[in-house]
Amino acid sequence: MSVDVLHEPSVIEGRPTFHEINEHITKPTEVRPDRKYMIALAITSSLLALGATCMIITHWYGIGMWGNNNPVGWAFDIVNFVFWIGIGHAGTLISAILFLFRQKWRTGIARFAEGMTIFAVMTAGIFPLMHVGRPWLDGWLFPYPNQNKLWVNFTSPLLWDVFAVSTYFTVSAIFWYMGLVPDFASMRDRATVKFKKVIYSIFSLGWRHSNRHWQHYEMMYLILAGFATPLVLSVHTIVSFDFAVSILPGWHTTIFPPYFVAGAVFSGFAMVQNVLIFVRKIFNFEHIITLDTLEKMNKIMLATGMMVGYAYGMEFFIAWYSGSPMEMFVFVNRAFGNYAWAYWIMVSCNVIFPQFFWSRKIRRTIPLMFIIGVFVNVGMWFERFVIIVSSLSRDFLPSSWAYYTPTFYDIGILLGSFGLFFTLVLLFIKTLPVVSIAEVKAVIHGSQPTHKGGNH
Amino acid sequence: MQEKVLYAMSALFDTPDAIIQAAESVQKAGYKKFDVNTPYPVHGMDNAMKLKPSTLGYFAFIIGIFGAIMAVAGMGYLTGVDYPNVMGGKPFFALPAFIPITFEVTVLSASVATVVIMIAFFFKLPNNSHPVHNTEYMKNVSDDKFGVLVEAKDAMFDAAKVEDLFRSLGASRIIPIYYDLEDIRTVGNIFRPKFVLFLAIVVFVSAGLTYGVLNRLLFIPPFTWMVYQPRVNAQQKSNMFADGSGMRNPVDGTVARGWMPYRYSGKPDEAGLNLVNPLIPNTHTLDLGKKNFDVYCSPCHGYLAKGDSRLRGQFPNPPTLHSDKVRNWTDGRIYAVITDGQNSMPSYSRLVSPSDRWAVILYIRELQRALNAKQEDLK
Prior knowledge:
The complex is a heterodimer of chains A (about 450) and B (about 375).
Chain A (H helix, E strand, L loop, with lengths): L17 H13 L4 H27 L14 H25 L6 H25 L25 H34 L3 H11 L6 H34 L11 H27 L8 H32 L2 H12 L3 H13 L7 H4 L2 H28 L14 H24 L5 H7 L13
Helix pairs in contact in A: 2-14, 3-4, 3-7, 3-8, 3-13, 4-5, 4-14, 5-6, 5-7, 7-8, 8-9, 8-13, 9-10, 10-11, 11-13
Chain B lengths: L5 E8 L2 H13 L5 E4 L7 H5 L6 H27 L12 H28 L13 H6 L4 E6 L7 H10 L4 E6 L2 H6 L6 H24 L51 H7 L8 H19 L22 H5 L2 H10 L13 H18 L8
Antiparallel strand pairs in B: 1-3, 1-4, 2-3
């Protein structure tokens, strides 16, 4: 018997039956939450409450509660916005781009990553809405016929951002929901309680697993993946335009779009990896979210981390090559000036620590990869901090130079954003199937016909 | 009790190979209204069921193109026609700057439309009253079995024959599916009063909320509270300064920007000798002069400066400006009259700026010449 060397190893370990998969994936949604879950929820919702309090105080007294000053008008608010949008990008990359590349290992993590995308974009969206200073007027961000007879400025990157982020959220949410529909149908048919059955029936839209439907459904999934792929690239490109279209040295560079997208994928994968390590342990999904999958994510982090490192180097080269004294000053100041501590945190976390992933052993050791993932997220947060704050604090006019220090409210809202994100993640894993049931069934051993009759 | 109405005969199979074979056999047997239900999409099933390729992509394409055109046309209209405004030195129709939003609108409209069209028109969902719901058959195919069903509406349908076919294919179970009689009565009737009322409430509440919040609420206190900040307005009291006034006078000797002192106050003859009109007559200065003359001078002096006041005797009529005296005055002498006033004419120095005064003088000269035209002017 010949060995098929091209045959991929199964992405799901062991040989579970279809029924076992059904049981296993829906189990967390059907049993009562245990003590560990409640403790985790208590921690995240406390952080959320802290953040909400700080936000309410900020809404009441205005953004003077923050450390923002002149010239540092953009600080934690925009740093957090860019950070969270970036976290979201890994989800779309996994669900759409890896789908188009027919990477079957994405199956186990796609649903979860998509959910994280939605929560991250929700978290990110709060920041620009607060940053405008009068959040009750946020409706003016959208072009609608208002009584002021004014239209928004369609040529401004800040408005592009409004369109990009809202489109991204809508398309991600649709993509996520459409993936959930067949799973809602499976859960509907398992439900024994009337109340649950009604809810699942509503959300399943009456899905019948019909092959006349599956045919269009698969086409729709392909089309949405095709749309989501350029969309995710456009979103962080447009976010980078917020900076690149300005004339501030340190912001006005053409490398920003690819550099921001690579950084977004980098930090997003780190966040997905961190959270999945807990999820697979707590819910015993080790055979569905396998160590191989985590290893592949670590490889992507290594690759995107080096792209980001290349961009750091290239920024310095271009600053020197441009011959512009302003540019040169900003980059020397970035590495050795008032915010040098932030710069070196960024470089060590983003460029140096991920190099450990060259070792297969570290890529497959869960505690080590977890620590490196945390470092990556710290580093990527500081990357946005360095770009935004260090460039602004030393602008063209030395008389207006100032040092930015966050206040209690800045830090409270940052912690609150983590609280919001993880609270949503926790509620999600307890109410919805965190792994796509239909997709996993389709990739396990023996799920597809062998076509022995030669009818293929 | 009414008799049960058969919807379909269904059979369950255990393996994907068996269901592919079953689908092929049912299709070859000539049945048209049959369906295969599997917990996940089985490869090769489209071929086995002889399904036509999905046309969903065309809809996505058409709606996407439509969205792109609407975005470009909409932005072009809003920034170029409805509210033209120069932004960053860009043209009103700044196509490169429209690209990001055009792309986003294209993706948004195409994605939403694809999903809505698929659910509503391709699938005819949501439909929770379909007869297969809540059956043993449905519970199995959404878990781990593979099912095929032939509807009773099919032209060739014969329950016994279908059952034989399923049995010969090695079905593990054969289940007849019946209509739910309650569902038959209500299915397809979306105009039930409760539902229509629900839709009406949704429309009114969402439209009312949107209108109320965006156009009313935001202009009502306390949502306008940033207008009422602790601050000192002009002419208010303030304890900050010794004199208790919130307003400050400029420091002595301050000269306003663009203001030049007038040295000939009360000395009109001197002004007539020394001041020279800095403007030359051209369409622009004459136009400016006419505008100012019509606004400030013509009520008393008349549009043609003949002294034909429009004030109907409420104010003494001034003499004509076509007298020899005024025609022989220098520009500087007239300037002195406008600046200082004369007899009952007040000073216009606060109302008409110096350059506008010179323009008015040019216009007066033009009027004088028009009413006393020489022979050579007529050529």
